[in-house]
Amino acid sequence: MKKDYSITRTRWNGIEIEIRWNADYLVYDDRTHMAHLEVVSVSPERAPLPITETGYRSHFTPKAAMEGYDSVLAFVEAWLDQASRSPEWRAFDQANRQLSLF
Question: Does the pTM exceed 0.70?
Fold first, then answer.
């Protein structure tokens, strides 16, 4: 098990996020590589994202799942954009944009 992660920070919809990526987290006997991806809301701290209500997401995936993306950043941005179109996220986002009168 390899513990070296590449770390990238970016902003998504006004939320600063940190992306931690380990392409070779685990290598099976058949040489299949299992990768580990972590996405964390940094500012605001632990802000909900379309892929996590808690601001933290740990995701294990075959390394090959990243094929077709220029980078792990492109993969995460596509994942967030796709998930942000869900009815649940749209309702959550709309409710948080409303000003409370009470």
Answer: yes
